[in-house]
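Recap from last week: sequence in, structure out.
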Amino acid sequence: MTTEQIEYLRSCRQRVGMDIVADILPFWLENGLDKENGGIFTCLDRDGTLMDTTKSVWFQGRWGYIASLAAIRLGSEECLDAAASAIDFIEAHCFDKDGHMYFAVTADGKPVQKRRYVFSECFAAIAMAEYSLAAEDPEYAEKAVALFKKIQWMLAEPGFLPPKFDFEARGHSITMMLINVANVLKQVSDDPVLDEQIDKSIRELKKYFMKPEFGSILEMVGPNGEFIDTLAGRVINPGHCMETGWFILDIAKSRGWDPDLVKMGTTIIDWAWKWGWDEEYGGMINFRDCKGFPPQDYSQDMKFWWPQCETILAGLYAYQATGDDKYLEMHKKAFDYAYRVFPDEQYGEWYGYLHRDGTVAQPAKGNLFKGPFHIPRMMLKAAALYDEILG
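Predicted structure tokens:
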């Protein structure tokens, strides 16, 4: 690395290290914690004012994971207590009688909404695993693995989860998510089911979802990887692709930088950059159509907070894996853009929803989908990567 590159990475390390402890975590600890019922609220206005007491079950798990990770990395007892509160709330209120978790509940845990997905379970599993490390409690490692096996059963059991469409299809989201969930659980368990799932998901990504003819991963394909030539079937989600790329590189790293996985992960990241980076305004856009038609989603060219975070991490992982300066430049562009337009200098935290030109579309800091996950995960993981790269 050049002196200039080293100094740049040091400045990034200083920025994320400062922001996680002085801005992001305090915003949620001060404004989001439900001190009466436990768990966390995420529907917060720009200044942290609570707008809706409905609780995202995703975020009970996501926050349980982040707070546990922060407790480990930063030695924060406050975060450890917050993680315990979220996990206690999950266990008390977020599972239906059939074992399938809710999507949203009331402040005191009454059911509001249940969806066909198993994302709530995935986030609960990583929360339990990370909390097991933070609290040095092996019982939660066992609970995390048991829940992971329940996730696998629900996905495999015919008729348990209602289909999204009236035709058979495969989805990219759950395929790639299971890689990361299994990898988090591997910190606390050597159950062979975890590596088996990682390898299975990687095989499925290669066989079904990676489409060299379009230079991208597609979000939905037929049961045997068939191209579905519809608006829904042509969707490219560059943020998801970046996330998939660094998930795979994280596995490659754990396996001594497996060269085949490095090639796979960096290929996916290269594809995502080509489709997603906005050369005119900067930032990663939401959706593209693999044939170049206008995407159906109304937010197609907006700049959301989370794809920027995933691109920051993907560029950094790819640089660590390859030493190729193009990935350091990718990281720099994503980092500089995100820090230019997303942080709220007046009230703290980051905006979530910007127009394509970087102006704020709506200023709330949270809802059922945005909360303390992608931003603090990026900061905590990037800090560790900077330290490893800088030595």
